Amino acid sequence: MGDPRSAPAEARQIFGDALPVAERFAEFLADAGVVRGLIGPREADRLWERHLLNCAVLSEAVPESSTVIDIGSGAGLPGLVLAIVRPDLSITLLEPLLRRTTFLSEAVDLLKLANVEVRRARAEEVARDYEADVVTARAVAPLERLVTWALPLLRPGGELLALKGERAAQELDEAAPVLQRFGVRTAELRRLGQGRVEPPTTIVRVVAERTPRRAKGSRKRSS
Ligand SMILES: C[S@@+](CC[C@H](N)C(=O)[O-])C[C@H]1O[C@@H](n2cnc3c(N)ncnc32)[C@H](O)[C@@H]1O
């Protein structure tokens, strides 16, 4: 059997020319990420299957040259993976904990990623600073709370792409009142990476209709 930490065959297809950078990130996660407690020790042997590949296929849902905010990046999932696979995107990794933003900044330097900014903040505190095309999040909050953090960060017509697990449909139902409050007309489940990752990645896609808590004319301020 091969080394469980080395990239599986599908990683070549999914990451393409960016595979060496993804491999470097996998090593950094398996070493510093575990030592500093950003990911559990058991995750080191299943980084590709459980984390890197299913985050990378989120790329299918992100339009060309988008500005993206990843809420609660933690160790860089999915935001940093998206930055590796999609150099055309401008990505802000939003994370309140210093230990995690330090790790993220080190990873950005190590991987020489020019399209990533790391910001230490809570999503609900920085709505006035952004008017993003896309907000991403994985394992941060139930959808009904995530919507209240994400929609104010988006431009009208922008999209929240929330990676969700088996409860995705139930979370979507539970979020109905808050989606209605925000005037959302498009909120749907999508499966990404079909035929490329097993199981496919489930996301909830929510399109922002209006942005009730944003000051007018507030394009992203410089960081
Ligand atoms: C369970 S971790 C998930 C990390 C990563 N997204 C992943 O999938 O591995 C949740 C992360 O959300 C961050 N977080 C919690 N509340 C937040 C908030 N209000 N705004 C932004 N990030 C938040 C936490 O600090 C933590 O890093």
Describe the protein in words.
This protein has 223 residues and is α/β, with parallel strands linked by helices. It has a domain of 154 residues: Vaccinia Virus protein VP39 (Rossmann fold). The protein contains 8 helices and 7 strands, in the order H-H-H-E-H-E-H-E-E-H-E-H-H-E-E. Strands 3-2-1-4-5-7-6 form a 7-stranded mixed sheet, sandwiched between helices. Helix 6 links the parallel strand 4 and strand 5. The longest helix has 17 residues. The chain starts with 8 loop residues before the first helix and ends in a 16-residue tail after the last strand. Bound molecules: S-adenosylmethionine. The site of S-adenosylmethionine (SAM) has 17 residues, from loops. The site of S-adenosylmethionine has 17 residues, from loops. One of its GO terms (cellular component) is cytosol. Keywords: Coiled coil, Cytoplasm, Methyltransferase, rRNA processing, S-adenosyl-L-methionine, Transferase. Specifically methylates the N7 position of a guanine in 16S rRNA.
CATH architecture of the domain at 54-207: 3-Layer(aba) Sandwich
Helices, by number, come to: 8
Radius of gyration in whole Å, from Cα?
Answer: 17 Å
CATH topology of the domain at 54-207: Rossmann fold
The level of helicity is 25-40%
Number of separate strands: 7
Q: Give the C-level CATH assignment of the domain at 54-207.
A: Alpha Beta
Q: How are the strands of the largest sheet arranged?
A: 3-2-1-4-5-7-6
| Whole-number mean pLDDT | 92
InterPro entries: rRNA_ssu_MeTfrase_G, SAM-dependent_MTases_sf
Function: Specifically methylates the N7 position of a guanine in 16S rRNA.
Binding site for S-adenosyl-L-methionine: 72, 77, 123-124, 138
Enzyme class: transferase
